[in-house]
Amino acid sequence: MSNTFSENSQIGVVPTFSELVHTDFKGEMNALCWHRNLDGDFKEIVTKLSLKENITEVSPEDLNALQLSEKGNIAREIILNDLQLLADFGASPSLNLLKCYERDDEFDFISTDVYSFHVDRSPIATDTFLCTYHGAASDIVANSQVEQKILIPEIRAKLKELHDGTEEEFEGFLKENYFDLHYHLHENAKPINLGLGHLWRLAVDHPKQEVLPCVHRAPVENDGEYRLLLIC
């Protein structure tokens, strides 16, 4: 993949892990990419892992137990190194073999699952890190190209019908049920696919955040293909 990320004002591109974690978000930039063209056979790892549930967490011990080819071993070492880098930084990375996420189909007018464009929120200063090694990759979109779903009049009216409380309590109801985290794309919005092998850091909504949180979504999985995803 050619490095087109650097042409986008939302994305900062860095050549090292150190710069990924130590570069400050600023202005419109709320996504940082450690851009990499990885060698190794990640598909081999996926085919040799066992899916126990729709989302199965893979431990370093699980990885080390696999009998792999030379290319598969290169891929394994890359993943183990990424996990170690993030752990040493103080993050809690998880490697997931993923068939699909749970769908939210409770309401036909608003979705709050991860396939919907959304932001992450935390009570403490933190960031979201992710890297797709195999399978469909996530998307992000510029904040100027989306609108909070709760601000769309017809959606807001239906949410008010759901709310069993006073007008003063309504905003709290939206927050408690995570409705306020989800976004609707403008008609001419152009989501950006995060691609394979790049390690990303996305801005999260937290009390000390100085930029807008990064709007992103999980992709619809490719038919018959599992994803291998590092996330924290």
SSE map:
Layout (H helix, E strand, L loop, with lengths): L10 E4 L2 H6 L8 E4 L7 H7 L6 E4 L1 H5 L5 H20 L4 E5 L28 E8 L4 E3 L4 E3 L4 H10 L4 H10 L6 E3 L6 E2 L5 E5 L11 E3 L9 E5 L1
Parallel strand pairs: 1-2
Antiparallel strand pairs: 2-10, 3-4, 4-12, 5-10, 5-12, 6-9, 6-11, 7-8
Briefly characterize the structure.
This protein is an alpha+beta fold and 232 residues long. The protein has helices at 17-22, 42-48, 60-64, 70-89, 153-162, 167-176, and strands at 11-14, 31-34, 55-58, 94-98, 127-134, 139-141, 146-148, 183-185, 192-193, 199-203, 215-217, 227-231. It contains 6 helices and 12 strands.
Give structural notes.
- With 232 residues, this protein is of the alpha+beta class.
- The protein has 6 helices and 12 strands.
- It has helices at residues 17-22, 42-48, 60-64, 70-89, 153-162, 167-176, and strands at residues 11-14, 31-34, 55-58, 94-98, 127-134, 139-141, 146-148, 183-185, 192-193, 199-203, 215-217, 227-231.
- α1 links the parallel β1 and β2 (31-34).
- α2 packs across α4 (70-89).
- The protein is globular, with a radius of gyration of 19 Å.
